[in-house]
Design brief:
The chain is an alpha+beta fold. It folds into six domains: 43-97, no CATH class; 105-143 and 152-185, Nucleic acid-binding proteins (OB fold (Dihydrolipoamide Acetyltransferase, E2P), Beta Barrel), CATH 2.40.50; 191-257, Beta Barrel (OB fold (Dihydrolipoamide Acetyltransferase, E2P)); 278-526 and 584-656, no CATH class; 529-581, no CATH class; 672-772, OB fold (Dihydrolipoamide Acetyltransferase, E2P) (Beta Barrel). It is 28% helix and 25% strand. Strands 3-4-5-7-6 form a five-stranded mixed β-barrel. Strands 8-9-10-12-11 form a five-stranded mixed β-barrel. The protein has a five-stranded mixed beta sheet with strand order 13-20-19-16-15, with helices on one face. α9 (441-462) crosses α10. The protein starts with 42 loop residues before the first helix and ends in an 11-residue tail after the last helix. It catalyses: Exonucleolytic cleavage in the 3'- to 5'-direction to yield nucleoside 5'-phosphates.
């Protein structure tokens, strides 16, 4: 990436109103671009300032740094909007950052030390398209600014995960960033995981499973009975400044060839806490059933749970009835009751601190790593059939047109009337009730489906983004091996629960805003103009148009998806629309939810498995005066940091789940090297093609060097690789036949060979190809241009 020119900019330390300087710290001999304090700086200067001062890159701080007021501040806002739409900067919480740069506050894993013994960390989550994750030098703070409320500075060590404030490095010869520790999130105590390999003479080596991991020596007395090829958990037995570290085997997970060990690889590779500390278990075991204090008695209301057939915890229950009010003819009342986790998990308790470290539950095909211990998640807080359970409930009134007329929140004691699976409830509605659902059909299930039809009117009017991306599920055999991969049917029962949960989440955000209570929103920004332009050019090759301008709404994309429905391009268009979208995150600053087309949205309905929902529950309890377990002032002051942490942990969970599926599928296909498969091109890069096997949900790679003898040109806008000589190529969404060339289960990697010939490219792609070749020829002929290699 080219570096922007440095220029004369105001120093953050100067408050005199005189123009200052900024360049390379410690003196910079580069020429500076003159600017006038109080006037809008050139784009290059603004971009360099954002890159070098991430902690001062909010709109307010930028205006202050350049002395901008009045019309100049308006011009700054417009310039920043243009830079964001062009993809030159992107939002990160309250600040702006350059693409590929670290945000002002980030979660880091401390992975190593430099030659001087300084701790070096890297971002806990990093998008692969941004290249190698940057190194960050960790500075242990001795200043008052780096101390906590007790006057002590947090201290971190090797293997720890920290929340840190990020600064551009002073020494340009070292890491690009330095960091000051805000707090230590997780002290990993040097625990690591790897594959044990025996060495002659006894003992062995630990081969790391993490890409940035280091090999370790295991002495004969510390092998713990591990055999060659075993996946083992170790602790560092001795650290040294020189040579390999020495480790001691703590436990043998099992042969790395076993699928049951695969999820443990992801757990350790991503640093997911999976063992509850003794104080947390003790606190959970000591918990007593909730009392009726500050609760309404709703045990006679026939609320029911509808969940996957294999669900072990049940945190939401629903009920619907006609509204008896004459002011709302044919309207309905929908009640959603959610497990009252806030009663058991109090702020700053052992349970609470551990839940925040985890952020959310993580779901693997063979296990679940829960956010809360089983005593809480599967017992006291699970809305079990026929058992008294505490809940936080919302009663919502809708008109017959699906417009919400009002809602109220209640802290209740409930008793679930039935536990149903999605398939069971759907079968009853479809005319095939069983002994359990038969008596419930008229009084409970049909009113729920009638209410859903009314809610659906409101959803259709709102027009959220309706992507059709089937979610594959892996079914395992009893021994942990893959049985089959399938796409579960999408039932109305699923949609009913989803829409009722969305409405409950909206109600929570509205109530807290009305009470002027700070909270954590679930926000989703719209796609940048840069991503829109890539999508627009791609769609043009299919004869589909996307309107220009920055005011694109979710229904704009729905029109595109509708045009592609039923065509050969349907999957490809859905994938490209998905890629154009931003990622949803948690934040105390509300910008709305683009995908759902909602202005006020918070997560409220899953406090057993998401920390964000627990915070919202506490905020509701506190602001509505519903008794014990409300949000505290310390929590309110920390919502920025909490939102950043749980957003990171959500991405961590998604990556771990995805990698585990990749490893399971690679293990399943390892014995079929040489076999042919029907595949679809799922990604196009400069290096080659990513292909997906629809029957297996597996992804693999075809290097560009193996595609044939032609020279292939990469066209990002049209997501294509086109042969320079033949004009034939491959595009995103193409159906192809491939041969499995290599499977590496430990890495979850599959490499394929292309068997299908390239296809003639559409006119727009051919035009791009000709322009690229013409530009290359002109460059070769330009005066002073060096001839290409091989023709000197």
């Amino acid at each position: 990436m080219s570096r922007e020119p440095r220029g004369r900019i105001p120093s953050s330390e100067r408050r005199s109103g005189k123009p200052g300087r900024a360049g390379k710290a410690g003196g910079d001999a580069e020429p500076m671009m003159a600017i006038i304090h109080g006037e809008l700086p050139p784009r290059e200067v603004l971009l360099r300032f954002i890159a070098d001062h991430p902690q001062q890159a909010s709109k307010r701080e930028l205006a202050k740094a350049f002395g901008l007021k009045g019309e100049s501040r308006v011009a700054l806002k417009e310039l920043l909007r243009e830079l964001e739409e062009e993809g030159m900067v992107q939002k990160s919480r309250k600040s702006l950052i350059r693409p590929g740069a670290l945000p002002p506050i980030a979660v880091l894993d401390i992975t190593t030390r430099d030659k001087d013994g300084m701790l070096i960390g890297r971002p806990a989550e990093w998008a692969e398209e941004n290249g190698v994750a940057p190194a960050v030098m960790i500075k242990q703070s001795s200043s008052p600014a780096g101390r906590n409320s007790k006057g002590k500075a947090p201290v971190a060590g090797m293997g720890d995960r920290i929340l840190a404030k990020i600064f551009s490095a002073v020494d340009r010869g070292g890491p690009a960033y330095t960091a000051r520790i805000i707090k230590v999130i997780d002290k990993r105590q040097g625990a690591s995981m790897g594959v044990f390999r025996e060495t002659p003479g006894g003992g062995g080596r630990l081969m790391p499973i993490e890409r940035r991991g280091e090999e370790m020596v295991i002495d004969p007395d510390y092998t713990g009975g591990a055999k060659d090829g075993d996946l083992v958990e170790v602790e560092v037995a001795r650290l040294g400044r020189f040579g390999l570290q020495r480790a001691k085997v703590l436990s043998v997970v099992g042969s790395v060839a076993s699928e049951k060990a695969i999820s443990m690889i992801a757990i350790h590779a991503h640093g997911i806490p999976h063992v509850f500390p003794a104080p947390v278990i003790a606190e959970a075991d000591a918990a007593k059933p909730a009392t009726m204090s500050h609760r309404e008695d709703w045990r006679s209301l026939p609320l029911i749970t509808i969940d996957p057939a294999d669900a072990k915890d049940h945190d939401d229950a629903v009920y619907a009835e006609m509204d008896p009010s004459p002011d709302n003819p044919d309207g309905v009342i929908v009640t959603v009751a959610i497990a009252d986790v806030s009663w058991y998990v109090r702020p700053n308790s052992s349970l609470d601190r551990e839940a925040l470290k985890r952020g959310n539950s993580v779901y693997f095909p063979d296990r679940v790593v829960p956010m809360l211990p089983e005593r809480i998640s599967n017992d006291l807080c699970s809305l079990k059939e026929g058992v008294d359970r505490p809940a936080l409930a919302v009663r919502m009134i809708f008109s017959k047109e699906g417009r919400k007329a009002g809602h109220t929140f209640h802290r209740v004691m409930m008793k679930s009337a039935a536990k149903l699976s999605y398939q069971q409830a759907q079968a009853a509605i479809d005319g095939k009730p069983d002994d359990k659902t038969g008596p419930m059909l008229e009084p409970i299930l049909k009113p729920l489906w009638h209410a859903y039809e009314i809610l659906k009117k409101g959803r259709d009017r709102r027009q959220p983004l309706e992507l059709d991306m089937p979610e594959r599920k892996i079914l395992l055999k009893p021994d942990g091996t893959v049985d089959r991969v399938f796409v579960p049917p999408r039932l109305d029962a699923h949609k009913l629960i989803e829409e009722m949960m969305i409405q409950a989440n909206v109600a929570a955000a509205e109530t807290l805003e009305k009470r002027k209570q700070v909270l954590i929103y679930r926000i989703h920004d719209g796609p940048t103009l840069a991503k829109q332009e890539i999508l627009r050019e791609f769609l043009a090759t299919l004869g589909i148009s996307l309107a220009k301008g920055g005011n694109v709404r979710a229904n704009s994309f729905n029109g595109i998806l509708a045009k592609a429905e039923g065509t050969a391009h349907q999957t490809m268009v859905n994938e490209m629309v998905l890629r154009s979208q931003s990622q949803a995150i948690y934040s105390p600053d509300n910008i709305g939810h683009f995908g759902l087309n909602l202005m006020k949205y918070a997560h409220f309905t899953s406090p057993i498995r998401r920390y964000a929902d627990l915070i919202v529950h506490r905020a509701l309890v506190g602001s509505l005066g519903l008794g014990e377990g409300g949000i505290t002032p310390d929590e309110e002051a920390s919502l920025d940091d909490i939102a950043a942490e749980i957003s990171t942990f959500e991405r961590r969970a998604m990556a771990a789940e995805r990698e585990t599926v990749d490893r399971l599928i690679a293990h399943h296909l390892a014995g079929r090297v040489g076999a042919e498969f029907e595949a679809r091109v799922g990604g196009v890069t400069k290096s080659g093609l990513f292909v997906t096997l629809p029957d297996y949900g597996a992804d693999g790679f075809i290097p560009i060097s193996t595609l044939g003898t032609d020279y292939f040109i990469y066209d990002e806008a049209h997501q294509a690789l086109t042969g320079e000589r033949t004009g034939l190529g491959y595009r995103l969404g193409d159906d192809v036949t491939v041969r499995l060339a290599e499977a590496v289960p430990l890495a979850g990697a599959l490499r394929f060979e292309m068997l299908s010939d390239g296809k003639p490219m559409p006119t727009a792609v051919r035009s791009f190809h000709k322009a690229t070749r013409r530009n290359k020829n002109q460059a070769r002929k330009a005066p002073g241009t060096r001839p290409p290699r091989g023709r000197r």
